[in-house]
Design brief:
With 76 residues, the chain is an all-alpha fold. It is built from three helices and no strands.
């Protein structure tokens, strides 16, 4: 019987949520805000510079992308 992992997408969703929550926590604590949507454009750009300096294969990229999308939706 071949190896199977039923509903693996649920595991992936959980990891993505955990990573995004951790990134959100670090950003909010650093800038002293309650929500990432409160960040200024300058602050979110600083976060993007940090993200761009990460290894492109870093699992944290997932969280930074989600946070940026969240900020962009609220501030576009």
């Amino acid at each position: 019987m071949a190896f199977e992992w039923g509903r693996i997408h649920k595991w992936e969703e959980n990891y993505e949520r955990d990573i995004t929550d951790d990134v959100r926590t670090q950003i909010c604590e650093h800038y002293g805000v309650e929500e990432v949507t409160e960040l200024t454009e300058e602050q979110i750009n600083e976060v993007q510079v940090f993200r761009d300096e990460l290894n492109e294969y870093s699992v944290m990229q997932w969280g930074f992308s989600n946070i940026y999308s969240e900020w962009e939706m609220e501030n576009a």
